[in-house]
Amino acid sequence: MKSLFRVFYSGMSISFFGSIVIGTIGLSAMQISITEGIRPAINFSIGSIVAEVIYVRLLLVALVWIQKNERIFKILEWITVLIVVILAIASFRAALGHHGAKNVLLSHTMHRFLLGLSMRAISPAAIPFWLGWSAVLQTKGILKAEKGFYNGYLLGIGMGTFAAHCIFIFGGKMAVEKLDASQEAINFSIGCVFSVTAILQIWKILKKRHQHRKKRKVKA
To answer: Which residues lie below 8 Å from residue 164, measured CB to CB, with a gap of 6+?
Structure first.
């Protein structure tokens, strides 16, 4: 029982601190909570959590195959950049007061649960993150190749991510109400964060590609 709680706590802690870092999913949940309300934002969060838990479960049974298919990661990385750029542009357009300007990804055409599910599903950031942490926990003997341990681990991950998202959802809404900030200012701030996120993501991709080329030259 103690071992199961340990793997549950490990999954929850890693997930919470990993999700509390400002990113696309957390900011999108905050933006939805501010513009549409708490319930749609929670639906969005749950959708993203379902996708993340599925990711981790698949990782646990297909670590070798995933590590070999780097091309898939590269495609998904650029798709993620495109999504963040679209979110940034839409936020800036809304901040500048364009009437009828809508965020394409956060529009009302898709249920928030499905939107969260799809946005997390095409974001590769969670894969290397959980690939590394799962390997560390297995090496330390905390995470064992047993159904009970896997279930405890996944439950902890889900709860940790949800707790972090709640800070964005409730905290963002409370901050806006307390500060009495205008919708334009909020959209501009979110657009800036999305822009920085996109730039950092592009920098990481190019840096990784440069390192791979360096390694090939050394081997040659």
So the answer is: 15, 16, 17, 18, 19, 20, 26
Using CA atoms, how far apart are residues 92 and 87, in angstroms rounded to an integer?
A: 9
pTM of structure: 0.68
| Inter-residue contact 31 to 190 (CB < 8 Å) | yes
Each domain of the chain, given as residue ranges in start order, spans: 2-219
Lowest mean pLDDT among 31-35, 43-47, 48-52: 31-35
The helix/strand/coil state of 109 is coil
Supply 150's token pair: 């896997």
Closest CA to 194 of 35, 33, 21, 24: 24
- Pull the structure tokens for residue 216: 């090939």
Token pair of 15, please?
């997930």
Q: Using one digit for the tens of pLDDT, what is the confidence trace for 128-185?
A: 778 778 877 887 888 887 888 999 999 999 999 999 999 989 987 777 666 555 666 6
Q: Looking at residue 205, what DSSP letter applies?
A: H
